[in-house]
Amino acid sequence: MSASSLLGDIADVGRDRSRGGYSRHGFDSAELSLREWFVAEAADRGLDVTCDRNGNLWAWWGPPGPDAIITGSHLDSVPGGGAFDGPLGVVSALAAVDAMRAKGIKPSKPFAIVVFAEEEGGRFGVACLGSRLMSGAIDPATALNLRDPDGISFAEAVSAAGLDPARMGRDDEALANIGCFIELHVEQGRGLIDLDAPVGVASSILAHGRWRFSFTGEGNHAGATPIGDRRDPMLPASQLVLAARAAASSVDGARATIGRIQPIPGGTNVIASTVDVWLDARAATDEVTRNVVAEIKAAGLSAAEAEGCELTVTEESYGDTVIFDPVLRDRLAAQLGGVPALPTGAGHDAGILAAHVPTAMLFVRNPTGISHAPAEHAEPDDCEAGVAALATVLEHHLST
Ligand code: GLV
Ligand code: MN
Ligand code: MN
Ligand code: MN
């Protein structure tokens, strides 16, 4: 079956009528129905599906075992995200199995399609939660205490989905079985458009992290409180937005984004008592990223002080620069007739796994260059080129 028709099958799941695009978050009803859909698709292909201790799904073609070749991605999205970020890697893996079967290929090594849980952190705030838990990159107690915007903890959400929170955490057995992980993903920038290529391989991922800035002032009445009597945390919060742009603009290639602000209590006629501001900052190296964040933090502290507010800053997640295994990257590029290698600013489960196992990524051209938004796209022909590329590299790995 083609990747586009598989995407068509799930096109109605998790549509976000108010934001546009899709909102499919870890263990919410939309993501749970996508997981069910995946289990059924895998079963139709005779694959054996297991769910690991951390909520990641594995569909095995043949028996599980060591030195396994793993491909896959995630099914969750950012709030109001596109149709391709995540699902394209999953449907392409299913379509690659179909293509290999049609050619009479049988895996000579263990092979599985993986669906990682809560990759975007759109519900619990920390990206790549399933792969971080599996690889020990996050302490299970920290993960289980994360809360979604409705106050539901990750522990409660996974229990409701039938998982045992007490068993979550580093899974050495699962990690030890992975001989190599290859994640196919829609490109999230304009690299392949500019190179005029439908498919490429990833070279690196920017260092990146998320920080919560909590400004606390004094909640009060919007009409009855003279301007001079206010300690309004919205003031330093607003200045933080400008400081983030200024700090990132002064460093080549750095990015700083504030895409989420939450005033508490959040009333039009209420001076907020607290404003939480989430910063996403990225740059080529750990040092540069940390310097950019330090500059933004300094600006936040002085803006808070000027308004008589307090500021606390919490690092919610962080990942250093990822350089993908150059041998594997070059081997894949050569197997695909010399496709280009390109860096990305987006985070992926592949970036988490790269610290543990040989890992590579294939990118499929995105003609809009837009991602994490409804305009994200991949043409059906390019999706098929992606499936063919994935099947080609899997065939090489499964037959050697
Ligand atoms: C996830 O896709 C990220 O890069 O934030
Ligand atoms: Mn994403
Ligand atoms: Mn993704
Ligand atoms: Mn991602």
- How far apart are the first and last residues' alpha carbons, in Å? 26 Å
Main β-sheet: number of strands, strand sense, barrel status? 9 strands, mixed
Reading off the top of the CATH hierarchy, the class of the largest domain is best stated as: Alpha Beta
String of helices and strands: HHEEEHEHHHHEHEEEHEEEHEEHEHEH
> What is the CATH superfamily classification of the largest domain?
Zn peptidases
Ligand inventory reads: glyoxylic acid, manganese (II) ion
CATH architecture term of the largest domain: 3-Layer(aba) Sandwich
Proportion of residues in helical segments = 25-40%
Low-confidence stretches: none
Strand elements, count: 15
Broad structural category? alpha/beta
Number of domains: 2
Characterize the overall form: globular
Radius of gyration using CA atoms only: 22 Å
Mean of all residue-level pLDDT scores: 97
Strand content: 15-25%
Tally of separate helices: 13
Assign the CATH topology of the largest domain: Aminopeptidase
Keywords: Hydrolase, Metal-binding, Zinc
Cofactor: Zn(2+)
Binding site for Zn(2+) 2: 85, 120, 372
Family: Belongs to the peptidase M20 family.
